[in-house]
Amino acid sequence: MKFCLSILAVLISFGAVACDVCGGVTPSGGDGLLVGNQFHFIGLRTNYGRFQSFHRNPFSEETTTSWEHFTRANISGRWQFSERFNAQVNIPYAINLQRIDNGNQLRHGLGDISLLVQWMLISTKNEAGTSHFLAIGSGVKAPTGNYSRDPWETSNLFPGSGSWDPQFNLSYRFSKNKFNFQVENGFTLKTQNPVGYRFGNAVSSIATAFYSINTKKNGKLLPLMGIGYTYTGSDHINSYLVAESFNSGHLLSTEIGLNYLTKNWILNTKWSQPFVQSIADGDVESKGLLEFGIHYLIQKK
Q1: 156 by DSSP, 3-state: which?
Q2: Reported confidence tier of residue 36, pLDDT bands at 50, 70, 90
Q3: In sequence order, what are the beta bridge partners of 105?
Q4: pLDDT score, position 245
Q5: Rounded to whole angstroms, how far apart are CA atoms 56 and 39?
Q6: Residue 63, class by beta-carbon neighbours within 10 Å (0-12 exposed, 13-18 middle, 19+ buried)?
Q7: What residues contact residue 252 under an 8 Å CB cut-off, 6+ apart?
Q8: Residue 37 contacts by C-beta under 8 Å, 6 or more apart in sequence?
Q9: Domains of the chain, residue spans
Q10: How far apart (Å, rounded) are the C-alpha atoms in residues 272 and 255?
């Protein structure tokens, strides 16, 4: 249980949501260009995050180092069932690897599926080309992924948490001609799983600026820059605080990326690089997160 911290997310994610710090809480993603439009879509987003962990021997000065590699592929779909409401489902598959001197651990499989319903509160555009979009959402993450049946051996190497977790988000977008600025916020309320383990609640926020550049083939390139923040609370076993909770901490990262938009497709890539972090009292370090995504847009009839 002592090695890793989500985020995303996160990392990950609610459609891009907050995930847990290790394999989850890195402020991965966000819905990006999918925020503020009324298309149906289906898509695939993959991300890879790498962590270094330091295992300190309480009886000596010896420290063992391990590396954790988290790869996640997320199939998502959204149905815009009215002018102001849509529903989005996210189906993750995780491949998690820990490399350490006394052997490797590999766990993979279906993760926890989530469903989110979003309500568009504001969507305006004036003659000067200025628009505003504001939406709130709520949903739930279901315990569909494999999780540890021993609360004292719980770790984020498992694809799932074993718990039903309510999720909430708030998205705002401002556009002025070719410039776009948006903020995405997510909160996951963690509940206790059947073996008595409860991961810490997760909060994430990401602010991103885009600039649109027209291409010769009726597409648009949109480079982006931003900043992301993630906080994850401490874990509990049967309501008692886990003293050596390696799932707690915060992380602040820069975000750079590129999107390509056509009539029916959005392709994106993004790199998140932490510049301030405190995970597990410094015993875990995030080395960054790389993301790729492709989404097919379907015009709402």
Answers
A1: coil
A2: confident
A3: 98
A4: 58
A5: 50
A6: exposed
A7: 227, 228, 229, 274, 275, 276, 277
A8: 297
A9: 32-298
A10: 5
DSSP state of 25: B
20 backbone dihedrals φ, ψ, rounded to 5°: -85, 155
Q: Dihedrals φ, ψ of 33, to 5°?
A: -65, -15
Report the alpha-carbon distance of residue 150 to residue 197 in Å, rounded.
Answer: 9
Q: Which CATH superfamily is domain 32-298 in?
A: monomeric porin ompg (2.40.160.40)
The DSSP element (H or E) to which 52 belongs, if any, is strand 40-56
Q: What is the pLDDT of residues 127-165, one digit of tens each?
A: 888 999 999 999 999 999 999 999 888 778 899 999 999
Cα R_g (the chain), whole angstroms? 19
Kindly report, residue by residue over 244-300, the tens digit of the pLDDT: 656 689 999 999 999 999 989 999 999 999 999 998 888 889 999 999 999 999 987
Q: What is the mean pLDDT of residues 201-205?
A: 95
Residue 8: count other Cβ atoms within 10 Å of its Cβ: 36
**What does the alpha-carbon distance between residue 144 and residue 237 come to, in Å, rounded to a whole number?**
21
How confident is the prediction for the chain on average, in pLDDT?
Answer: 86
pLDDT at 301: 66
For the CA atoms of 77, 80, 86, 92, the dihedral, rounded to the nearest 10 degrees, stands at: 0
